[in-house]
Amino acid sequence: MSKDNKQSVFQAAGFLMATMVISRILGYLRDVVLYNMFGQNRITDAYNAAFSIPDFLYSILVGGALSSAFIPIFSYYIARGEEEEAWTVASIVISWITVLLGIGLVICYAFTPQLIGLLVPGFDAKSAALTVTLTRIMLVQVVFMGLCGVSMGILHSFKHFTTPAIGSVFYNLGIVLGGSLLAAPIEARWPGYGIAAFSVGVVLGAIANFMVQAPVLYKKGINFHFNLDYHHPGFRQLIYLMIPIFIGLSVSQINLFVTQNLASSLSDGMIAALRMGQRFMQLPIGIFAIAIAMAVFPTLTSHAALNEMDEFKKHMSLGVRSVIFITLPSAVGLAVLREPIIRLMFEFKGGEFTAAATTAAGNALLFYSIGLVGYSVVHVLIRSFYALKDTRTSVIIGIVSIGINIVCSLLLIGPLEHRGLALAYSIAGISQALLLLYFLRRKIGHIDIRNMANSLLKTAGICAVMGIVSLKVCDVAANYVDIGSKFGQVAQLGVAMVIAIAIYFGLAYVIKMEEARIVFGMFGSRLKFLNRFRKKFS
């Protein structure tokens, strides 16, 4: 891989990370408003249960199966100069999505109570009825999510990452504004829609996401015409690729459904606690791991298509090691500083989010953090298989991991309650990553396992030092500041995090880890300070 090509991938990953940070901040604001308005109880349990269906569709359609299968097909026609055929395939896909999702919406609306009964069987009648109402509101977004998946696939095929990334920001912005403005009553002029306002916000966000991308699609020369020709070879190839990809990328979401199903029988607020812990865990995955995986995927696909397997292996290894370098310290930091983080972000005077809610969510986050690196690496490895046009292996491994999650959940929910469900989810993710590595090695031979293992061991050693020191600093700081005040919480957490970051990158500099140079390369072109720091590792 040329230096310019590598730099362009790093720049794309850096931009995706930056936009994802903004999107996650908006997601945090949404949760702050939500939990301080309603607390961590059956009301927010119902919202989280209802949100799980559109969240699943968003993850699969926009960032998963549809775009992952569409990119190789569309790119193939563009690379061969057959733009008319490329747009024909796009038209067929959009037409079928519109028809099938329209039919699916009608069916889902009709059978929403039965679907919710499967997702949260432990809910009482009142909570289940609220969940049904919220789900039916959110289902409207499904068609727009499908269109977003196609548009993102088209734009990524042209190596245009900016607009789809901005669209994800608008998605969360729609939820924040919709929930904030519509939830509370305003005197007699506006009755307020309570928690249903956040469901309306989900729909508004989905519409905004697509509307941001539509003008750029037009500029790229999109030539849409309604077409249901399922015999087209490009469309048939896409379906062949998409079905196993869909199953493979559904694994983590299905595991969450299993967790939610079992958690509905626990005490009030445990689904919300698990959901919050899982969202914190997903933060570094969404900002770093998915950004790297999405940016590296077109390059992996190109190397595989040209049978440049040495370059393929190098780039895959760099992707995995970069993900580990970023997400392992994130996991340790979240585990060690879990309660100070949640307390600072969600406990506000006069709000409904209590200290008990902080402890419950913190316990969930601790056990979710164990699997953070595993799920992060999975994103790179799955796309490595897709680039090799092997979707069968990752599907089988995904199904195995679902079985592992179910068995571990049933074994651990008794002694550990909601903590056991989080631990089972983590065990499933680690198992999936290890199995993917094993079978990728069997498929293509040597995959630089030694360097990946060395990178993991070095990173783990640095993280151990970082975690111990930051925990001690946090405890000492609590003796000097009032952690009951926001100023004290900021001071405690801020000092601990600054020292932790300094220790981590300082030790990485001392032992000259290659991954540090790679990671800074993702940001260096945008932040001059990081660019200077990056050069020290060169």
Report what the structure shows:
This protein is mainly α and 538 residues long. It has 2 domains: 1-241, no CATH class; 250-457, no CATH class. 82% of the residues lie in helices and 0% in strands. The chain is built from 22 helices and no strands. It has helices spanning 3-38, 42-62, 65-79, 83-110, 112-119, 125-138, 142-157, 162-183, 196-219, 233-249, 251-263, 270-305, 309-336, 338-346, 355-369, 372-387, 392-416, 418-444, 449-477, 486-510, 514-524, 528-535. The radius of gyration is 23 Å and the shape is globular. It starts with a helix and ends with a helix.
Topology, pairings included?
Elements: H1 3-38, H2 42-62, H3 65-79, H4 83-110, H5 112-119, H6 125-138, H7 142-157, H8 162-183, H9 196-219, H10 233-249, H11 251-263, H12 270-305, H13 309-336, H14 338-346, H15 355-369, H16 372-387, H17 392-416, H18 418-444, H19 449-477, H20 486-510, H21 514-524, H22 528-535
Helix pairs in contact: 1-8, 1-12, 1-21, 2-6, 2-7, 2-12, 3-4, 3-7, 3-10, 4-7, 5-6, 6-9, 7-9, 8-9, 10-17, 11-17, 11-18, 12-13, 12-15, 12-16, 12-18, 13-15, 13-16, 13-19, 13-21, 14-15, 14-20, 15-18, 16-18, 17-18, 19-20, 21-22
